[in-house]
Design brief:
There is one protein chain. This protein has 319 residues and is of the alpha/beta class. 37% of the residues lie in helices and 20% in strands. The N terminus is likely disordered.
Length: 319
């Protein structure tokens, strides 16, 4: 919900100061206070939180690293008093401040009570990728203590489990480099106007594993595999002949029609719940033919329904 819809609502902080929860006006009708946008960046250590924060900083956000969660409402209040100079705030919350981490839930409830719009971005990565990253820089995991890196990763994953479930956007950085992560952040935050819903349609191969950041998973292995057609095998689902082969199969066009209708219902529900991001993972055996062709079709349908959509082909080219 856009906080600007709640004009003139106010609450008191602990010291009695008035904190606006929207845009207020003086007697002459001149707006004087506007609550800034808030993004909370969290996730696994080594998964790219600093890169994500730096990307938002480059986009003009005011970024605060390792802020104790209890101080997040105070930071929003200070932004509201800045007369528009701090319109967008990003806060990095991680286990370095773990003694404060229990306060995060209370802070989020406080923000909700004041009708502050907030989004949570969660950076995820596989255990193998995280271990490689920590070993490459010869640094211990902040929670490993006297144990191994994997012990610290397990402890952190358990600590962050609930927050991950509440995240508006989950980004799996296991196979991403710094530039690819920045591109993902740019795709979500670089627009001047915030769309109602952004979708990422990602093709993948089941033999390479499920995308951990998927909200919805589609299995296209019910269709014949173009891999077994010699003249189509070298090509991908981006090829017109491969796409025609896939969608000339019984049930293929009907699936696209019906699943597109289902996505309309899901998108409407996401909007009502204030969810701004959805990742739809479309899989086939190798992520080369059926999933690629289907992802392109679904993305085109979403665009036609007014959903801002990015297409990613995770495993295309791995064979």
């Amino acid at each position: 919900m856009n906080v600007n819809e709640h004009e003139g609502q106010e609450s008191q902080n602990g010291d009695g100061a008035q904190v606006s929860t929207g845009t207020t006006a003086d007697a002459a009708g001149t707006p004087d206070v506007a609550i800034p946008e808030l993004v909370i960046i969290s996730g696994m250590s080594g998964a790219g939180r600093s890169t994500a924060a730096k990307c938002l900083e480059d986009l003009g956000w005011f970024v605060v690293d390792n802020l104790p969660p209890a101080l997040i409402p105070t930071m929003v209040e200070l932004g509201a008093r800045s007369q528009g100079n701090v319109a967008r705030i990003a806060v990095v919350v991680d286990v370095r401040g773990r003694r404060f981490f229990d306060n995060l839930r209370e802070s989020l409830a406080d923000l909700e009570a004041k009708h502050v719009t907030r989004r949570i971005v969660f950076l995820e990565s596989s255990d193998d990728a995280l271990v490689r990253r920590f070993e490459s820089v010869r640094r211990p995991h902040p929670l490993q203590g006297d144990g191994r890196i994997v012990d610290g990763i397990d402890a952190e994953r358990e600590l962050l489990r609930e927050l991950r479930g509440d995240a508006d956007l989950v980004i799996d950085t296991s196979s991403l480099n710094v530039h690819e992560l920045r591109a993902k952040m740019d795709a979500q935050f670089a627009g001047e106007e915030e769309p109602e819903l952004r979708a990422t349609v990602m093709s993948f191969g089941f033999k390479y594993g499920l995308p951990v950041d998927a909200d919805l998973v589609v299995d296209m292995r019910f269709l014949p595999n173009p891999h077994w057609v010699p003249e189509l095998r070298p090509y991908t689902g981006l090829n017109e002949e491969v796409s025609a082969y896939v969608f000339n199969q019984p049930g293929a066009k009907e699936f696209i029609d019906r699943y597109s209708e289902l996505l309309q219902l899901i998108a409407a529900g996401y909007r009502r719940e204030g969810k701004r991001y959805v990742t739809i993972a479309v899989g086939c055996t190798g992520g080369k033919h059926r999933s690629v062709a289907t992802s392109e079709k679904l993305a085109a349908r979403l665009v036609s329904q007014g959903v801002e959509t990015v297409v990613v082909h995770r495993d295309m080219g791995r064979e």
